[in-house]
Design brief:
The protein has 266 residues and is of the alpha+beta class. It has two domains: 20-109, no CATH class; 111-264, no CATH class. The protein has six helices and eleven strands.
Length: 266
């Protein structure tokens, strides 16, 4: 039971588990800087379908990390990854010309869990946001979840998972908290979803298909932006760090929308 007798756990009891695997198709280009930097990044898309995400920063953090994406010399590249490296790793390469390479990789989606101990799930609606550091809002809209969160962030109880979906916003957040010692290991992901592509094209006065390669996508394949983070923290510091994940998702979403308006409404 959450909020019951205090339990302490050591970090060695926990592990970064892999919730599921996703297949990502990646498009790259061989270029003059391949030996020094690696293949140039051209785009990626989930499950080899749908539209391409062309900006590396719009990909989930774990995808960026897996692909070793770095920026420099005015380009984004897969650091140290060359065609020979891909072949050595057994990755099947599809050639789209003399310089273009496409390939598919399976990437594990990270989550925090304790083997043998299931999460206790809480579904909450804080009305205007997915997360907050305001205790009054928690007390008004999700007092039971808040009590469990406060305990878990002090290293008490078993793992909890919060699903947050405010009715007033099109954002979704999942937060997994595993008590460790006197703090907690935390994984947080926030998705700011947009309208469908045809609605956005209509809003911007564009022809159908005009945004085929210009929209950001979440790892679930929806139009929108997502931000995730994994960290260890406790108490108020942890609450602020979780809140910052949503803040970053809002910021990225606004920046992407601003880019679309400026780029296509010239």
């Amino acid at each position: 039971m959450m909020g019951g007798a205090s339990h302490t756990h050591t970090l060695s009891e926990y592990k970064m588990a892999k919730q599921k695997k996703q297949k990502w198709q990646v498009e790259t280009r061989n270029w003059i800087g391949v030996r020094k930097y690696g293949l140039m990044f051209r785009g990626a898309r989930l499950n080899s379908r749908g539209n391409w995400t062309r900006k590396a920063e719009n990909l989930p953090g774990y995808v960026q990390d897996y692909l070793l994406l770095k920026s420099g010399a005015g380009y984004t590249y897969l650091e140290g990854v060359t065609p020979k490296v891909l072949e050595r790793e057994g990755v099947h390469i599809q050639r789209g010309g003399a310089l273009d390479f496409k390939f598919v990789v399976e990437i594990e989606v990270p989550t925090v869990t304790k083997p043998g101990v299931p999460f206790k799930d809480y579904h909450i609606d804080l009305k205007w946001s997915c997360w907050t550091t305001d205790a009054g809002i928690w007390d008004d809209y999700a007092p039971d979840a808040y009590a469990a969160i406060k305990d878990a962030l002090q290293g008490k109880g078993d793992p909890i998972r919060i699903y947050s979906a405010p009715k007033k916003e099109i954002r979704y957040m999942t937060v997994e908290i595993v008590p460790v010692g006197k703090s907690a290991q935390i994984y947080a992901i926030c998705r700011a979803e947009w309208d469908e592509q045809y609605d956005i094209e209509n809003t911007l006065g564009l022809d159908e298909g005009a945004l085929d390669e210009s929209l950001p996508y979440t790892s679930l394949g929806d139009v929108g932006v997502e931000v995730d983070a994994t960290f260890k923290a406790r108490g108020a510091t942890a609450m602020k760090k979780i809140d910052a994940v949503e803040g970053e998702a809002i910021k990225d979403s606004e920046q992407e929308w601003s880019w679309l308006e400026n780029h296509f409404n010239k």
